[in-house]
Amino acid sequence: MKDAFGLPQSLLVLGGTSEIALATARRLIARRTRTVWLAGRPSPALEQSAADLRALGADVHTVAFDALDPGTHETALGKVFAEGDIDMVLLAFGILGDQAHDEREPLSAVRVAQTNYTGAVSATLVSASALQNQGHGSLVVLSSVAGERARRANFIYGSSKAGLDTFTQGLGDALHGTGVHVMIVRPGFVRSKMTAGLEETPLATTPEAVATAIEVGLRRRSETVWVPGALRLVMSALRHMPRSMFRRLPI
């Protein structure tokens, strides 16, 4: 069960090699979390992530999970929940894609959509059902400010995150009053392996900063968290900017 500050004793990460997820796990282990499940495709990277968290004193397990194979999600995640209650599920998988390449190769664009949206819809519904059955828990979903408004530079990725964000908002409303807390996290540009080599945008952040914001959001039982917080005002302005002006922005 969670402690008095809303922090979990047990954590399930969907996307077990995500830098943001691992930074969050490290932070939560330092506070309260003692059991961690890392779900992802079997790989040396997944095993190394588990070993690194074990070194911090947590009981860490891995489970085979593939976002692109929704037919296996119920069985894979069911194994985790069968071992005991999970206080928090963190959905952290996703791919950025290559906008220029993906525009020319529709199947590559579809893979971005299937990973970031279709796979996430399946995994969150399976997780939400399990959390609801146990009567408590938090479902934290990593969205992105890219989903707030389509940009020429990354509208394929952005559209997948827009779909995920809208879906998660609706799921949060559906679960209101059930004991399950749903929180959407909207980071801006995060300095990570996924964004290596890309030009940074203003208000760039780090996995550690996102992890801190997640902890604060859990304590406050927030429904939406922006990282950094100033992006909320920035995106509000951009969302309402006339399209003719928006097209001319260097973003």
Write the layout of secondary structure elements.
Elements: E1 10-14, H1 19-31, E2 35-40, H2 44-54, E3 59-64, H3 73-82, E4 88-91, H4 99-104, H5 106-134, E5 137-142, H6 155-175, E6 180-187, H7 207-220, E7 224-227, H8 231-239, H9 243-246
Parallel strand pairs: 1-2, 1-4, 2-3, 4-5, 5-6, 6-7
Helix pairs in contact: 1-7, 3-5, 5-6
Would you mind describing this structure in some detail?
By secondary structure, this protein is α/β, with parallel strands linked by helices. 47% of the residues lie in helices and 16% in strands. It has a seven-stranded parallel β-sheet with strand order 3-2-1-4-5-6-7, with helices on both faces.
Number of helices: 9
Shape: globular
Distance between the termini: 43 Å
DSSP helix fraction: 40-55%
How is the biggest beta sheet arranged? 7 strands, parallel
Strand content: 15-25%
- Backbone structural class: alpha/beta
Give a count of the beta strands, DSSP E runs of length 2 or more.
7
Quaternary assembly: single chain
Computed over alpha carbons, the radius of gyration is 18 Å
Order of helices and strands: EHEHEHEHHEHEHEHH
Overall pLDDT score = 92
Poorly predicted segments: none
Salient structural properties:
Sc_DH/Rdtase_CS, 47% helix, oxidoreductase activity, single chain, seven-stranded parallel β-sheet, SDR_fam, oxidoreductase, EC 1.1.1.333, 7 strands, alpha/beta, globular, 251 residues
Summarize the structure.
This protein is 47% helix and 16% strand. The chain has helices spanning 19-31, 44-54, 73-82, 99-104, 106-134, 155-175, 207-220, 231-239, 243-246; strands at residues 10-14, 35-40, 59-64, 88-91, 137-142, 180-187, 224-227.
